[in-house]
Amino acid sequence: MNSPIENSTFDIDHRFTRQSGLSTGPVPLEPYHSEEFYQAEKEQVFKRAWLVIGRVEDIPEPGDFMRRDVTIAGVSVLVTRTKGGEIRAFHNTCSHRGTEVVMAREGKASRFVCPYHNWTYRNDGSLMGVPDEKAFFGVDKSKCGLEPIAVATWEGYIFINLQKVPEVTLEEFLGPLADYLAGVAYTFPDNAFVVRADVGANWKIVSDAFLESYHIPAIHPETIGATFSSNENPFARLLDAKLLGQHAHVSMYGNPNFELQEKHKIDRVAQKLEGAGSVISANKLDDMQQFLSHPVVNPTKTSGWSMDSVHIFPHTHINWGPGGFWLHQFWPLAVDKTRHEARFFMAKPMTMRQRLQQELYVARVLEVIAEDLCNMERTQRGVSAGAKQFMQLQDNEIAIRRSIDNVMRWASAGTVKEALAA
Ligand code: FES
User: Fold this and answer.
1) Distance between CA 361 and CA 383 in Å, rounded?
2) If you take atom 3 of ligand 1, which residue's CA is the nearest one?
3) CA 323 to CA 114: how far, in whole Å?
4) What integer pLDDT is reported at residue 415 of this predicted model?
5) Fewer beta carbons within 10 Å, N or C terminal of the chain?
6) Which residues neighbour 374 within 8 Å (Cβ) at sequence distance 6 or greater?
């Protein structure tokens, strides 16, 4: 049973940052607009860190595949499920003259045929067929398969590592996060509503916006402002924050007295009748019990809770609230351009009412994300103007402080082990 919030919860004691050992000083803005720093991120962060590329439910059956582009690294990645059920990852590059073999974003195929001259590969990456093979000078097919990429899974998440031989294992990279999140019962992972947008802002500006709730009363007054703040907590201070190696978990306040107003007639009907997990939710509270009972979900176990955000360094957030979980990913396209992908996981609707509830949820989510995206481009313009060298971060923005601290350390660290030694 969740407890009410203590009055002292929102005292200004700067506890999160002070306990973390991080600095409390101003933070440089240069990494958010410098082309030189972006190049360092490419080589030192995205080509060395383990990166979440998807979930196992994206390729559930033998023969399933997905292609994902890690644009900052200039790499197209093909992830497959082999006949034996194994997950493999490859560079999507033909061994003949280098053309990208697979163009589809996802699908099912037991073999891949390069469109240029029809070289054919099995979905375990091995080279199967070379048209007019006799005209070549002894092609050793066993050495001309697709180039493998290191791949590993954890709790249903598929990670890749673009180092030829990763310097650290996925377990070492995850550090304390691996045990911390073990056993979270992610709800409806095989049914995602996907939102994808290219935003004119650095990937860290986009990521940072989803790591704090300080902005919510200001940026989202008409949509979610009143659900994340109240007279008791007008600035939406955090309930909890933990740093877990390179990664971080913040738990956000939710106004326990929030009620939909008279004017929200349709929302009221849908939420009440379906027993939703929260006013912004696509799933029924009844379906969420196992998920919600995990110790790290709503870690303070308070009734005044809205959502948690777990930052898996560098570019993925796992989020959850009373109504289920969702993912944000931030793929850098250029120093000032990012592909933002959000996946909201929800039950397949069984009734018209449930469908209505989900449609309302999706509409609300799109509204909120649009509010965020507009602000990000405004922030990028301000940052790129160069008038300010530093930003000021308060205690409830600790996950941003952690993230930028990580990026700067990785950008200059000679080895991954050195980068991980935070
Ligand atoms: Fe792929 Fe020629 S480049 S078959």
Assistant:
1) 33
2) 97
3) 43
4) 97
5) N
6) none
Q: What share of the chain is helix, strand, coil (3-state, %, to 5)?
A: 30, 25, 40
Residue with tokens 């598929």: 158
Other C-beta atoms closer than 10 Å to the C-beta of 279 total: 22
Identify whether the C-beta of residue 373 lies closer than 8 Å to the C-beta of residue 219: no
Closest to 101 measured CA to CA, from 110, 89, 113 = 113
How many angstroms separate the CA atoms of 165 and 149, rounded? 9
Provide the residue count of the chain. Answer: 422
Q: Could you identify the atom of ligand 1 that is nearest to the CA of residue 119? A: 4
Ligand 1: which atom is nearest the Cα of residue 131? 4
Q: Does residue 404 sit in helix, strand or coil?
A: helix
For the record, the structure tokens of 153 come out as 């899974």
DSSP secondary structure string for all residues of 248-283: EEEEEE--TT----TT-HHHHHHHHHHTBSSSS-SS
C-alpha 144 – ligand 1 centre gap (Å): 12
For the segment 206-218, the average pLDDT, to the nearest whole number, is 93
Record the tokens describing residue 102, joined without a space.
């697979």
pLDDT, one tens digit per residue, over 246-287 is 999 999 998 888 777 777 777 777 666 555 545 566 777 778
pTM value is: 0.94
Confidence of residue 7 (pLDDT cuts 50, 70, 90): low
Q: Is the CB of 99 inside a 6 Å radius of any atom of ligand 1?
A: yes
With 0-12 / 13-18 / 19 or more C-beta atoms within 10 angstroms meaning exposed / middle / buried, residue 12 is exposed
Chain segment 26-64, per-residue pLDDT in tens: 999 999 999 999 999 999 999 999 999 999 999 999 999
d(CA 33, CA 203): 10
CB burial of 388-419 (b: ≥16 within 10 Å; e: otherwise) equals eeebebbbbbbbbbbbbbbbbbbbebeebeeb
